[in-house]
Amino acid sequence: MPKDGGIGASTKRREDVRFLTGAGNYTDDINVRGQAYVHFLRSDVAHGRINGIDTGAAEAMPGVVRIFTGADFEGVGGLPCGWLVTDRFGQPMQEPPHPVLAQGKVRHVGDPICAVVADTLEQARDAAEAIVLDIEELPAVVDMKAALAEGATKVHDDLKSNLCYDWGFVEENREAVDKAIKEAAHVTTLELVNQRLVANPMEPRVAVGEYNRGTGDHTLYTTSQNPHVIRLLMGAFVLGIPEHKLRVVAPDVGGGFGSKIFHYAEEAFCTFAAKACNRPVKWTASRSEAFLSDAQGRDHVTKIELALDKDNNFTAIRTDTLANMGAYLSTFSTSVPTWLHGVLMAGNYKTPLIYVNVRAVFTNTVPVDAYRGAGRPEATFQLERVIDKAARELGVDPIALRRQNFITEFPYATPVAVEYDTGDYVATMDKLEEVADLTGFAARRKASEAKGMLRGLGVNCYIEACGIAPSNLVGQLGARAGLYDAATVRVNATGSISVMVGAHSHGQGHETTFPQVVAEMLGIDASQVEIVHGDTSKIPFGMGTYGSRSLAVCGSAMVRATEKIINKAKKIAAHLMEASEADIELKDGAFSVAGTDKSVAWGDVTLAAYVPHNYPLEDIEPGLEETAFYDPANFTYPSGAYACEVEVDPETGKVTIESFTAVDDFGNIINPMIVDGQVHGGIAQGIGQALLEHCVYDDNGQLQSASYMDYAMPRADDVPFYAVDHSCKTPCTHNPLGVKGCGEAGAIGSPPSVVNAVIDALQSGGKNVTHIDMPLSPSRVWAAMNG
Amino acid sequence: MYSFELERPTRLADAVKLLSDSTESLPLGGGQTLIPTLKQRLASPERLVSLAGIAELKGVKTEGGTLTVGGGTPHATVAAEAGAYPALAALAGNIGDPAVRNRGTIGGSLANNDPSACYPAAALASGATLVTDRREIAADDFFQGMFSTALDEGEIITAVRFPIPEAANYQKFEQPASRFALVGVFVAKYPDGVRVAVTGASEEGVFRWSEAETALSADFRAEAVQGLSVPAEGMIGDLHGSKAYRAHLVGVMTKRAVAAAKG
Amino acid sequence: MTQVSMTVNGKAARGDVEGRTLLSTFLRDQLGLTGTHVGCDTSQCGACVVHVDGKAVKSCTIFALEAEGAEVATIEGQANADGSLNVIQQAFQDHHGLQCGFCTPGMVMSAAALLKENPKPSEAEVRDYLEGNLCRCTGYHNIVKAILAASGQDVGAIAAE
Q: Which CATH superfamily groups domain B167-261?
């Protein structure tokens, strides 16, 4: 059994105490003396030309400090896109400017036009109502196919069309794939929509900008998953502030799920305005505003074809996807449908030929970017749905068809450019069949039918790619940032430890789990180790938390830094004990000389480092602090097998989740309790996508699902207790902890099994339904049954 | 929110007076709809008159065959104290969520007449009488289409009198996001016949389904409404369900309500 | 401006507010009790749930003046007198019933209201009671488990840690 606080222990979270007593410190809890408030006047039309803005009357309103428009930002950079995608023909994507405040045109409902800074928020809102806008409404481009049609209205006048890029992957496979599909014994085709979602972390975004005119220092408090990335993007590309004059703080952050990765206009505005107004400026989004300004997720329309030979072996996959970018390119928008989507298309299967075509499209809607899973759920959904459909067409068992085509030898190089280091898909499927009691399904179906309900079973596998890397490769693919991470381990004189990490914790529990690793390595109590994160002034550098990367990438940097600490501490210990460094052993928080009873405590070594009276000053420096940057050699590849059982009410179409089982292979696990929690949350978001959530625009680009009155969030009574198992472990081969990442698996792996289960239920009831687009709301299921 | 004065009278007469003077005033019941509306700046009263402090508007009592609920009674109180009319108590106990039920009131809900609210179905199916500060209004005359009622400006619902039926049940099929009724059907059986009221479904707001009433008055079994349907035309069609789907659900929920009412 | 007085977590509190000042705003901005969170503007997320005269209410959907003279309880007043976590708070920590912590104050306050009304709720009753409390992190699994555990029921049979 692991120790209470080391690797493998379900240590209770230390951060919980402050959250459970109301002592958390979220960005909206921060108020800076003398702060003013900003209200953004946002476009209420999806597309329009700005012919005039008259702020005269508004400026005279009580409490108004200053009103900003796009003209105030003409000398300022736009919000950058972090990934340059090159198209099938070798040309760079079309990349329109993204101004902080609209210039010339508004391009989506919610596009900020003016920013009113006033003494109080209500005064800012009052003044915003007095601004006179002359906006000529233009036809809105909403549907992606219509956006690409000849002669379509252009979202960006200066671009050639609404096509951001036409990406082919792997382009060299294109003809071979076409040929394989033409010659296949069987081809299953599925057209589907992976609908647009809204991430909806429970904490809306907040930004507070502050400027010290004495020192010229800027500070931004913001709800971010990656404060250093914001500092880099905003400082270098938007406002021209050097890093040493810009501090970005992301304190306690109330969830992100991707939507708080990106650099947003409101952050740049508050930083800019604090200097311009010589006053701190605060912005707190309302939930209604969040629906119109947080980058949204998914929104793919796909046709997938799966070719099989006469023995049901997969021979080729071809996909054709339209991916919605929205009106502007959000920070990582362009990478999601390409490098985070295409490279996953092999899934868990040995399909020799794959070709993925993605056309990214501009529309008059809120920008789309990464949301939990980011490209990987879209890949998994189409693949696992088309396999299920193929099994039904061929009259074979969907699990048997999967097993037959599993990759079984590792490392495995896929035809979509990645190499899976480890995995055991047979083991996870075996475990799933056991944990989900699949042999008992027939009896459970019978019991449901006796109540007049249809029961279905859906299964799927998934493969994930976490910790996107290495930097030199992603650079070739168009990334405009490195994807390493950094950690500094600072051992204090009395032996306690502060670990400054580039990863940011906004629910993941790093403050508890990262110390487990350091404590295990040093043999000291985890309570001696404290994690510092979320403040660029305290941490050397970091790329933040997204893509299930924190432990695999930043945790690895922390391990490397701790190894350096151990090496130096051993030198000090050797000196203190007058022994050879090679003979020093570290165990249970003490250094000893092998084969002797000589020993020196951890605290004596650390004190010597800072009070170096008896110290090898000629060989090493005083102090005990080490930094490591870690750039992974490859992605990590978690995988798993999921099963869902549903009941469908044949009279109303209402789907109820009866059980949900997740078997994941995450490699080594630091804290099983927290890993389970990550999977639970992901499953709920996946069930939300499968059954409930839908971000809907009407033909004029007006958001129909603009609040929780119309955007259906999963609630406690929409979901069951989940059965999760992670006893299958194939450790990652290329990072020091053998860990893979668990943050997104639940959201990636769950939607297909839910939909597969509903289709199974309907077919068991004699309904010839082969597909329903998500969300499988009662009305859609009923319509499909009666179609 | 725009700025307004908040008055908190403790006597009904004072509230009525405040609502009838020249200041543009709105009554504030539990505020569970009005406050979100104010946050969006969709209403701009000069004054809100809170009814929450008026004791005479609160309470549930049963006399003879009638259950009377004070207009300012929160849903949670009706759920707990309307045991003499179990279907009404159950309906009240399933409006919104617990925190909403602790504030939202029957008078506020009926006066708002949201087309997807639950209480209008109960009032209409029960043939309730709405008592105001100045008159009594039969439920059949009260509901006048979406968000529209027979109330005059400043008129306050002081009580609702429900004749207690022999059997009744309310079936709500929830809209997945708001959890308001996508379709809700309240069936109440009285000695002189069955009344069926439908909420959530129609563009005209809550309505009585007379065809079902006739059939059920003759034969109070779920089978009696088999084959009956409301026309899809005139139903609400939105992202949560088409007109045809809502029309279909009216039939399903009616059957289920009858079956449940019969216990 | 009108003066409002109430008792918050057992202590007298007063301040000058406008008619439109919400109780959540009064608690956060004037009393500095920032544990009460605001996650939506349509009265649905429940992050702002507090108790007013012993009943759970959404503090973003009641005006501060409507709480005149009331006993208000917030998350800051829930711990035991010695500062240790109370039974519900402790169960949330023991069963990992929170991740980002933003919805947590409302969850704990709703759980407290539930257990006062119904000391031994079933799983279904817990899930039903949480209709007005949204959580985006936990998938509710460990929240429901924590509340059942806080009610003294055995949760050992529920899957996962």
A: CO dehydrogenase flavoprotein, C-terminal domain (3.30.390.50)
